[in-house]
Amino acid sequence: MLLTITNTRPPATDLGYLLHKNPSRVQAFELSFGKAHVFYSEATDQRCTAALLLDVDPVALVRTRRGPPGEGGALEQYVNDRPYVASSFMSVAIARVMASAMRGSSERRPELVDQALPLQATVSVLPCRGGEDLLRRLFEPLGYSLAAEHHTLDEKFPEWGESSYYTVQLTQQIRLKDLLTHLYVLIPVLDSDKHYWVGEDEIEKLLKRGEGWLQAHPERELIVKRYLRHQKRLATQALERLLGEEEPSAEEQQEKKAEQEETIEKPLLLNERRLTAVAEALKQTGAARVIDMGCGEGKLIRELLKEKQFVEIAGMDVSHRSLEIASDRLHLDTMPPKQKERVRLFQGSLMYRDQRLAGYDAAAVVEVVEHLDAPRLAAFERVLFEHARPNFIVMTTPNAEYNVRFGTLPAGKFRHKDHRFEWTRAEFQSWANRIGEQFRYSVEFRAVGDEDSQLGPPTQMGVFSK
Ligand code: SAH
Which residue of 124, 161, 168, 297 has the smallest Cβ count within 10 Å? Predict the structure, then answer.
């Protein structure tokens, strides 16, 4: 299998200094499972492409017991995809053959190490258990644009269908060491068939290689689980360490940002009006069992508790800390048992399909959608409208057109630093109508807050019904 990396920033042959490999030479390295060859397929001032070709020896795999076990000397030991696809062997080769590039050292041109270069990596052939969707979920949050060519199992027998093999092209302005690190971790994750024994030191390796990006990756759980080859105990330990490192700073920041949003919207009493409007809309649906998705500090839940109609109220949020605050503010500890039975808070994510989100009459998603990365919206849509699929969904989001009315908000800025986008009325409505059609919901739009004749209301609401 072949990995190529192309730099297009002149002088493109700088790539040689970063890789510690002279563009005019062909080199070979002996590895325990075969040979790695490094050469350049082009080396001009404009474009320079380095290639890492891996020649896996299937017989060596059997001898070193690194291949599939095969039962009783079964054929699978010898005949399998390992020699032909980029698997963790590729990661091992990257780490061995491009160690200093991955570490980020260049003796001759140290200043290059921290420069983001226009790089393109092509991996052929990459086994991807989880399809193109998973490829995108893994690489797009890291900023790559991705092109994937899906290979049929056998061109002569199209009726056999598609294989799980892809040729993948990743493009981004990025530091070489980051590109190599992402490939090192994610290739075995995609393959999900790690070839060697996973020991405790694998956690160290993963955390070290994941520094600076894995913690914030929306698929970190899947990455960790698959990287540690589904060894639950190790995966749990690794996730605990990742999360442990993350919580305080990221979430304190989030609180500060939330305060900032409140300050901007405060003069309009928008928060209160939004909660009242959502509670009212939920009430009108006749729902008895409701869930607040992305409940934050539980303000809506407090409103809903006042209404007897709601016999079961769940609150879900991705942030542990917000849930703790919600639990404190609702005084769950000291609540009379009858009241307490009605409420349930749990940690989860709108990015993952989750049985716990299903079975409710109605869901509220208040000021949450604009916090989700645009490339991840599709996941959210399916989680909510296809899998959780409540009878009613009440969703609110800022109306971007209204922002010019906030004196304290600089032009072109969002109301909250963590907002990934803010929609105009037309944008929200066209999204909601499309979703309605796709998932068979009808949708009705309402205004929250005083409407400006031209700009519309400060907050927009969509009520979806099945
Ligand atoms: N609905 C609350 C909080 C809005 S702030 C209110 O109106 O007061 C946005 C909330 O969405 C935050 O609490 C944040 O932790 C949560 N959130 C962000 N991404 C999420 C995800 N993927 N899954 C679940 N909650 C998420």
Answer: 161
Peptide bond into 141 cis (omega under 30): no
Residue nearest to atom 8 of ligand 1 (CA): 296
Q: Which residue has the tokens 């994937």?
A: 148
End-to-end CA distance of the chain: 49
Cβ neighbours of residue 420 closer than 8 Å, sequence gap 6 or more:
370, 371, 372, 373, 374
Contact by Cβ (8 Å): 313, 342: yes
- The single-letter code of the amino acid at 128 is C
**CA–CA separation, 104 and 179 (whole Å):** 11
Question: Would you state the torsion angle of the CA atoms of residues 331, 336, 341, 342, taken in this order, to the nearest 10 degrees?
Answer: -70
Measured CA to CA, the distance from residue 366 to residue 396 in angstroms comes to: 5
- Ligand 1 centre from 105 Cα, in Å? 40
- Whether ligand 1 lies within 6 angstroms of the CB of 349 is answered as yes
Q: Is 296 in the pocket of ligand 1 (CB under 6 A)?
A: yes
26 φ/ψ angles, rounded to the nearest 5 degrees: -110, 130
More confident position, 293 or 333: 293
pLDDT digits (tens, 9 = 90+) for 62-107: 555 555 554 445 555 555 565 566 567 788 888 888 988 988 888 8
Q: How far is CA 395 from CA 370, 385, 407, in A?
A: 11, 12, 26
Element housing 300 (H / E): helix 299-305
Task: Output the CA 435–ligand 1 centroid distance in Å.
Answer: 20
Whole-number Cα distances in Å, 77 to 58, 83, 153, 193, 197: 8, 12, 20, 14, 17
Please write the tens of the pLDDT for every residue from 8-22.
Answer: 999 999 999 999 999
Token pair listed for 233: 């105990």
CA–centroid distance, residue 293 to ligand 1 (Å): 7
Burial class (CB in 10 A: 0-12, 13-18, 19+), 398: buried
Q: In what order do the strands lie in the sheet with 392-398?
A: 343-347, 312-317, 289-293, 362-366, 392-398, 459-465, 442-448
**Predicted TM-score of the model (pTM):** 0.52
Q: 39: which residues sit within 8 A by CB, 6+ positions away?
A: 25, 26, 27, 50, 51, 53
